[in-house]
Amino acid sequence: MSILDRFSLRGKIALVTAGAGPQFGQSISEALVEAGATLITASRSLERNQEYAESLRSRGYDAHGLSVDIEDVDSINTLHDEVRRRFGRCDILVNSAISREGTKTGFELQTPEIWRHSAAGDFVGLFAICQKFVLSMAEQGGGSVINISSIYGVVSNDPSLYEGTTMRQAPTYNFIKAGMINYTRHIACYYGKQGVRANCISPGGFFNNQPEPFLKEYCRRVPVGRMLDNEDIKGAVVLLASDAGRYITGHNLMVDGGWTCQ
User: Fold this and answer.
1) pLDDT for 198-216, tens place per residue?
2) Cα separation of 58 and 223, whole Å?
């Protein structure tokens, strides 16, 4: 088999949480279908996922939209059972959903209630969806789990980036993303011998029309001189999902333009 063939995902079933979302989700979904996978995208909005799946089908890809609430374990169980019933298996699970409520405010304004809300999806939900699908992957002989972390799961953010703006980095975000990395390593260690690989991708800052002072300072500091865009995460996802990355597990792949190498 040639190296390019090893990157192919033909015949694979891939599930992406928040896969219809504009920040990372759609990039991840497009990468997987472009590599040949059958895609399932799921989040709270069934309509949004079905519309996005239809847009991919109009381009000749095999895509389907389902719903899931990552804060509801019963909803996760229902999604798992529906995927198994309709598609027979799940070969690739990408967890890109995050409970945005916990990322909206800075340290001074956060409350225990915000942390509890975040924990329901970002901790309990991540655990529950991984547990359900990892055990199924082990039973079927293997699979790949890819959790989307962040540079801020590895290093702390610099407050000077936000000078001249109203932006703040919520402490829940750092806490969640750091924990995700080691949780992924736990899965890799315990289920590698059953053929299940588990890895993280930690992207750098995603361009989203942020205020000019932030953009100027971020681009000045990052070695490649720009923020991440829709195309930059695609190769990493396909590598970790495919046989090209079959000996990679327990790894946190930095896709950050060199931010964390300084």
Assistant:
1) 999 999 999 999 999 999 9
2) 38
